Amino acid sequence: MARTLKSDKWLLWPTLLLLGVSLVMVYSASAVYSMDKFDSAYKFLFKQAMFVGAGLVLLAIGMRVDYHVYRRPVVIWTVLAVAVLLLLAVFGFSPINGTRRWITLQGLTLQPSEFAKLAAIFFTAALLERRMHRINEIKYALLPVGVVAGVLTGLIVMQPDFGTSAALSGVVLIMVFASGLSFRYLAAVCAVLIPVAGTIVFIEPYRWDRITAFWNPDADLSGSGYQLNQSLIAVGSGGIVGRGLMEGVQKLYYIPEAHTDFIYAILSEELGLIGATVILVCFCVIAVRGIRAAMFAPDRLGALLATGLTAMIALQAFVNISVVLGLVPTKGIPLPFVSNGGSSMLVNLAAMGILLNITQHATALDSTGRARSTAHTTADPLGAEG
Q1: CA quadruple 178, 182, 187, 189: dihedral positive or negative?
Q2: Contacts 24+ apart (CB under 8 A), 231-236
Q3: What does the alpha-carbon distance between residue 356 and residue 293 come to, in Å, rounded to a whole number?
Q4: Is 380 within a domain?
Q5: pTM of the model
Q6: What is the mean pLDDT of residues 5-24?
Q7: Residue 335: predicted pLDDT
Q8: Could you read off the pLDDT of 40-52 as tens digits, one per residue?
Q9: How many domains does the chain have?
Q10: Could you list the residue range(s) of the whole structural domain that residue 291 is in?
Q11: Is the residue at 235 inside a domain?
Q12: Which residues on neighbouring strands pair with residue 99, listed in sequence order?
């Protein structure tokens, strides 16, 4: 049934617009750096275009594969096993910028932590679908989710990559909360996680430096506060309409590798408040329509998957833009669909494809005005009865 119905165009069109902006801004932000390093102004543009093309293929496949496939035990455990193996494999590769976050093969890099977010969402959605009626029973529902999320986040923290591990944990918490977890249990979970996160930040000097730079960015303009200050200069100098495409200054080695996590700063400088607002509106539309997909999904699995996938994209966008604007401490989280980066692009477009498939089922629900479930009956992911 889902294959004959239309997807939510209000999810699709903002995504395609962001992809177009990505190709333009990645080229604009990286051309000078690419020319100096590789003798070609188009190296990052070509790679980004390749990943956008591959991601669109994944999006198209995700739109056509019934989302109930992602609750099958063989799918869940295979995805989890691959995610864990890839997260372990990174420690066998040489560090890049002092971290071991990537697997490098034939000049291409894969960041397993991005894939791990999808694995966590699949597992959490499939398990809670069967067990959410007993969500407040710790051993039955919360413990399995906590163990899987803990293993994935622990491996990511060891790379080290605190930003991605925090994003993964945040998405899982949102899904558990949406499934009906009592506030007292949610408060207890947060009471445990906050001190753990604080300890992880405190034991690494560079993370603590980022916190102090956030509170007082002018204290060390050439050190810990440098990137944030340059970002704010870029955003502020853009004004209402911007300096003009390709006319930005901060990408000229003021902001390190400006085509990655701080591409929103370059966009704000060149396209001004108008361009920055358009990007922000695109993400707001995606978030609202994703929430709508969760609300109108015909079954629990669709609602939980839509919640997790929407939270993954929206949370990353919120954190990235907040970092650029100095609203939260600096974290290495890319802007979905826009920042240069193959793994993030592939995972986010695959997630959007799944979300669009869920909206196809939601369209069927709206058109009849009645709840017409398309749920498939399969076993509990952990083998327990619901």
Answers
A1: negative
A2: 231/255, 231/262, 231/265, 231/323, 231/324, 231/325, 231/326, 232/325, 232/326, 234/262, 234/265, 234/266, 234/268, 234/269, 235/265, 235/268, 235/269, 235/276, 235/324, 235/325
A3: 8
A4: no
A5: 0.88
A6: 91
A7: 94
A8: 889 999 999 999 9
A9: 1
A10: 2-366
A11: yes
A12: 96
